[in-house]
Amino acid sequence: MKIAAENKGISWSRFKATDIYLYAVSGLGVAFVVWGLALFPTYSPKSIFLLLAIFAAVAQFATTSVPVSETAGITFEVGTAVAMAAIPFFGPAAAAAIVAFSSLSIWMAKSRNEVTWKKSWRQLSFNTGMWSIAIFGAGEFYTYLNGYLYDSHLIVQMLLWAVTAMVNTQLNFWLLVVMLRLQHGPQVKPLKLWQENSWATLIDFLIKNIGGGFLIFATKTYGWIAIAAFFLPILLSAIAFRLYVRQMQNHMNNLESIITERTQELSDLMREKDAFLAVFSHDMKTPLTTIGLYADLLMEFPNIIQTKPHIPEILQTNQRALTNMVNDILDLEKLQIDATFDLVKEPFDLLPALESVTESMSVQAERKGISLSQNFNTHAAYISGDAQQIQRAFQNLLSNAIKYTPENGQVVVEVQVAEEAVNIAVKDTGYGIPKEDLPFVFDRFRRVKKHERMAGGTGLGLAIVKAIVEAHDGRISVTSREGQGSRFLVSLPLELAAVPA
Q: How many structural domains are present in the chain?
């Protein structure tokens, strides 16, 4: 692991502490590197040392970087797995020298990035020092214990190497975390950072443990030829690790985008719900006020019913309006819970049901001088469904058509039977729906803004119509032009087996 961070926007005291730590780590690491290079004449065979150095540098081309903040990141690499193989043959100082060589190669080869790889001299010196200290410390740990366990069983040697790889991984990680903490202050949480990157450090450890261990074993057995043979699996592991990290980053980015999208959707829904509550409270207030006024009038003048016989009809109309609003709310709540209606399905003829709905809406149409007519091209259209809910759906469609059609307009209910379906169209010569609102007419709480002053409504009617139609395995669509009217088309599957002989 390597560092990629900057020192902008920090206090002088923190800047000073960062520099002291940087110089200390860099200086100590350089000392270990110089020590390793000074011992080069004693290395035997030198060809293995040089091959390890070359392959460690080449392996760095498969590095991968992970951002930990807006201005800092961690780079994971596998060149250390190759460099660590030098510890049993040449000692910790030699491994530190190889690490420095591979660190220089990655610094020269890796492209600049303002978050994870700034390619500065400070970055190079700290990474070289940090890496050298980590591998030298792990090498001293191995050398010391190996003096006691040299002739032990192979399993013990494997465990010793595994612990050595873990020591290197953790030393490297915590040396880096200290620098990030000094640079960015409390926003860097060491334990949280360690937990978030534990999956990457685990893979880093496995590569060093397994890859470096096999390389040591093969080199002891087959010499320099094994380095070339076993280097390929290590390099492939590095590439696989890099691809895995990229997939993890893409996955995390995708999760973030999904969360952002869901948050925006929730925010939009809350705004729509607030708007709905405002409209709903206003629409409820009107019939409630009317009912209250006429109730007071009847209590004060009981005989007024003789001179004003239409009062019961007004009370009944407003009571039905309130009942429909409450039913819409209850159905909406049920839709949000299980997305279904309680249907009692049985075969029935759709035409009488449509005639009954049309007749019940004729009074509302007559009051506005609207012509409400039917045009059926068949004598029967049997479907399987809940007749009451189907009537409710078409009552909502006709009510909408009448509300949003000006005086002296026309509303037509057309029925056409196809081979396996019956198509019911509700057409009007009303105001029409703007093109930009068409995709959303069946959404909950949505109302056409241009029509809000023309007629009251909760914005739930068409959403409930769509739910009822789909609960009957049908489809609903709408076409409309402003100033010319709208056409809602409902298609329901026929129940051919129910047709009387």
A: 3
